[in-house]
Amino acid sequence: SGDDIEDVSLFDADDDVSRRSKKSKIRHPVASFFHLFFRVSAIIVYLLCELLTSSFIACMVTIILLLSCDFWAVKNVTGRLMVGLRWWNQVDDDGKSHWIFEARKASAQGSRTSSEAESRIFWLGLITCPMIWVVFAFSALFSFKVKWLAVVVMGVVLQGANLYGYIRCKVGSRKNLTSMATNYLGKQFLRQVRFPGGWKPS
């Protein structure tokens, strides 16, 4: 009858909701905060320093300290916690320098300790801020602000180094990139030779 209604627990739906909430949840709020704090603070100080003080030395030291703290925090803490990536330089017994790039492997259950929200925050901050410093570099160059050029170049170098390192961690070594590009170009060339003019068999 219509009155006989049985309550059924939708376990699959509950699992989907909990899985979705885990992906969107920020598991390392302190790391996420400091991932953006130092780099955004350096940009704000650069934009407002002439309004706050007339001392160029004080502004330069403050910006460089913020950039240095950002470089250390992103390289050693936030990258490992937020996206499971890390990179460093190691010198062997022969004195040769080796760059090492690592990515955390998924656990046996296939779960990841980093969430999608943290990953978005990490990559957004990592990519956007160096682009802003590049814009500052061109602005300082074309406006002939030579004294600010060294500070801006420091921002481009420090934040660009972290960006380069984490991209290498994410996509693999240069050899892997080269082989991927070679394979792709080879496939495109063979496709053009086999089917000239873009014609493909149906």
Automatic annotation (TrEMBL):
Name of the protein: Golgi apparatus membrane protein TVP23 homolog
Endpoints of the signal sequence: none
Pfam family, one: DUF846
Membrane protein topology class: Multi-pass membrane protein
UniProt source species: Turnix velox (Little buttonquail)
Keyword hit for Transmembrane helix: yes
The keyword Transmembrane helix is assigned to this record: yes
GO biological process: protein secretion; vesicle-mediated transport
Transmembrane segments: 54-74, 121-142, 148-167
